[in-house]
TrEMBL record, chain A:
Domain ABC transporter as annotated: residue spans: 4-250
Species lineage: Bacteria, Bacillati, Bacillota, Bacilli, Lactobacillales
Record SMART domains: AAA
Alphabetized InterPro entries for the sequence: AAA+_ATPase, ABC_transporter-like_ATP-bd, ABC_transporter-like_CS, FeS-cluster_ATPase_SufC, P-loop_NTPase
Protein name: Fe-S cluster assembly ABC-type transport system, ATPase component
Length: 254, 481
């Protein structure tokens, strides 16, 4: 069981000259077995929250805390957080020439296993083939260089492929639906749904309610101007589709 | 080592990764065992020593005459007027000829214990140790190359040491030796011609196609793994051959010099590839002259990796002498603390419609320096010729440096030339991405570097790719954080 808690989190971007706070007091608790969705208009801090939880060094925590099972992870490096069970499916994963997808994923899987317990190559390749098939990805995706020349849709699927292979305790999916056609969206959603269990938690960042028809969340949060202004069940996402974000204001947070 | 690897391994990363672990088990710090030489000319160089070397090898008179002529040129010639500082090189304290065993070693049991120990410490695989120890006639090690020897003999290929070639194929040696790299080319080519010992002789008859790479794994302290190797390769018309050598030098107590000369003659419509990986210890000056000539329709490819040494100066060249000849150079240089790698290539276009490509990749870290120094020359007859140069460097820290020094000489108008140069650092975004999947900063950096060298590594036979990955992995360890 894993519990991720975000407490009164204030965050600024390092590269920003003005050091303007993007997150202005975010509170959030996600437990194993739960799927949370965060919705909200562009520029409200959804991606900043994802990156800050993962530990992207470009973001600076001004105050507040992020804890994993009660322990603060603010001082942990990105890779420590990853090995502790966090995973971030990125909006814009970079390409790395010369490293095959399979080689990379195997290194990722092995990074959380002991030196004397590395995944056997044959077992790894079988697992990889099964997950490629599940995501309807051609087998040669394993031999291509990591994200190099991948289409937008291929990159998104490849992030989910890593999710299925690494099997993290908590996965943040940052706009995994953007750039996907409806068939690809269904496939990706089915992949994420196959992970759902009492030992898996997820935080889904999206603009659109559409994704949440396929991955039905337990809790929906609405974010605006660096705060979560409303939380509710899956019906909240549906009502937003009718009313739009404009109807929401900080006053609604009451 | 039960099968001969093929040259191209475009998808061998998984297998390479699996084998790297196996090699690492043995890879402990190399400590040198001194193997007392059975015959040595002592320190310094005189005409008498040159004569003594020739006498010890029982050479024909013409070779002694060539050695003496080269020695006198060597005495007169100045140091190279460019490139790294060679003032730390004390030529009077060098040993120019040593013989560690009396006769070529055939039996593993006869290999001196100190050499076996050195192999043990270097983590050389068992099968390869025997091959290394028996290297005076590379193909005679039955364990590894028995079946290859049959094929070589059947095809009429001669693959032997230079010393043996001089005894058994004197006419061929006499005809070609020193014609591509004359002693007056540079001071160290002259030195090599005066005191050469060991090296490889390879002759491929017309039309013979050998896909299996011919390999020689050199090490500096065995007899013909000398400091002054002389290699001569002749590829007759329409033939196809692929030669691979590698060097792993143990640490020496005093500065040492490696001054090899390689001459490759690629006749019309023939193909030759020469692959080298060198990892000299950090007190070795490696000053090599490697040159190939390519006749009409011929292709010459250099694949060259340099991971160590104190100072390396090496600019393999292709003289594109026949119409449509092709020359390529693919190189990787990794320079760590105190290492100066001054390397590049020379493509000399002497005929119409010739083409060349130079791809130079380098990594400098911990204050190391990697400089690219390359020459493209389009002679007056090179109409329609094409040259492409690409230099790609990663600097791992602020202390390390890299310069690109291209020299272009164009003596005819109708030619095309491309040059790209890029110096970069390990990308923060890439590091973050790999680390977000659980890889430590060191492992992530190592992977990015492996990706950077992959275009080079994939051109190597399997065990060389394994060795390269292991060496780069070792040289990256501790460079982060």
């Amino acid at each position: 069981m894993t519990t991720l808690a975000v407490r009164d989190l204030h965050v600024a971007v390092h590269s920003d000259d003005e050091h303007k706070e993007i997150l202005r007091g975010v509170n959030l608790t996600i437990r194993s077995g739960e799927v949370h969705a965060i919705m909200g208009p562009n520029g409200t801090g959804k991606s900043t929250l994802s990156e800050t939880i993962m530990g992207n060094p470009n973001y600076e925590v001004r105050s507040g805390d992020i804890t994993l099972d009660g322990t603060s992870i603010l001082d942990w490096s990105v890779d420590q957080r990853a090995r502790a069970g966090l995973f971030l499916a990125m909006q814009y994963p970079p390409a790395i020439a010369g490293i095959t997808n399979a080689e990379f994923i195997r290194a990722a899987v092995n990074s959380r296993r002991g030196d004397d317990d590395q995944v056997p190559v044959v077992q790894f390749l079988q697992d990889l083939d099964a997950n490629l098939a599940k995501l309807k990805m051609p087998e040669d995706m394993a031999d291509r260089y990591l994200n190099a020349g991948f289409s937008g849709g291929e990159k998104k699927k490849n992030e989910i492929l890593q999710l299925l292979m690494i099997k993290p305790a908590l996965a943040i999916l940052d706009e995994i639906d953007s750039g996907l056609d409806i068939d690809a969206l269904r496939i990706v959603a089915a992949g994420v749904n196959s992970m759902r269990s009492a030992n898996f938690a997820s935080l889904i960042i999206t603009h659109y309610q559409r994704l949440l028809n396929y991955i039905v969340p337990d809790v929906v949060h609405v974010m605006k101007d660096g705060r979560i202004i409303e939380s509710g069940g899956p019906e909240l996402a549906k009502s937003l589709e009718h009313t739009g974000y404009e109807q929401l204001s900080e006053a609604d947070n009451g | 080592m039960t099968r001969m690897p093929r040259t191209k391994n475009t998808k061998n990363n998984e297998q390479v990764a699996a084998q790297v672990n196996f090699l690492d088990e043995d890879a402990t710090a190399t400590k040198v065992e001194d193997t007392p030489p059975l015959f040595s000319t002592g320190r310094g160089l005189t005409e008498d020593i040159v004569r003594a070397i020739s006498r010890a090898k029982d050479e024909p008179a013409w070779m002694l005459a060539q050695r003496l002529r080269a020695f006198h040129i060597y005495e007169r010639m100045a140091q190279p007027g460019f490139g790294p500082d060679l003032s730390g090189l004390d030529l009077d304290r060098m040993r120019y000829y040593e013989k560690s065993t009396d006769r070529p070693v055939r039996d593993w049991a006869d290999v001196p214990a100190a050499i076996k120990d050195a192999f043990e410490q270097m983590g050389v695989p068992q099968a390869e140790r025997k091959y290394l120890a028996g290297a005076s006639a590379q193909y005679e090690s039955e364990v590894v190359y028995g079946h290859l020897k049959d094929e070589i003999d059947r095809l009429g290929i001669v693959f032997t040491s230079m010393d043996q070639a001089l005894r058994e194929h004197e006419d061929l040696v006499h005809q070609y030796f020193g014609t591509l790299v004359p002693p007056n080319d540079n001071k160290y080519a002259a030195l090599n011609a005066a005191v050469w010992s060991g090296g490889t002789f390879l002759y491929v008859p017309a039309g013979v196609y050998l896909d299996t790479p011919l390999q020689a794994f050199f090490r500096i302290n065995a007899e013909n793994m000398g400091q002054f190797e002389r290699t001569l390769i002749i590829v007759e018309p329409g033939a196809h051959v692929n030669y691979v050598e590698g060097c792993t030098a143990p640490t020496y107590s005093s500065d040492s010099l490696h001054a090899a000369v390689v001459e490759v003659f690629v006749k019309h419509d023939a193909y030759a590839r020469y692959t080298t990986i060198q990892n000299w210890s950090n007190n070795v000056y490696s000053l090599e002259t490697k040159r190939a000539s390519a006749a009409a329709g011929a292709t010459m490819e250099w694949v060259d990796g340099n991971l160590g040494s104190k100072v390396t100066m090496k600019y393999p060249s292709v003289y594109l002498n026949g119409e449509g000849a092709r020359g390529t150079m693919l190189s990787i240089a990794v320079a760590g603390h105190g290492v100066v790698l001054d390397s590049g290539a020379r493509m000399i276009h002497n005929a119409p419609n010739t083409s060349s490509s130079i791809i130079s990749k380098s990594i400098a870290k911990d204050g190391g320096a990697t400089d690219y120094r390359g020459t493209i020359r389009f002679g007056p007859h090179a109409r329609g010729a094409f040259a492409h140069v690409e230099c790609d460097t990663i600097l791992m820290d602020e202390q390390s440096r890299s310069n690109t020094i291209p020299i272009n000489e164009i003596h005819t108008s109708d030619v095309t030339m491309e040059h790209e140069a890029k110096v970069s650092k390990v990308s923060e975004a890439q590091l973050y991405y790999l680390m977000s999947r659980g890889l430590t900063e060191q492992k992530a950096t190592e992977m990015i570097i492996m990706g950077f060298v992959e275009p080079f590594a994939k051109e190597l036979p399997m065990e060389y790719a394994v060795e390269l990955n292991r060496l780069i992995g070792m040289s990256m360890a501790g460079s982060v954080g």
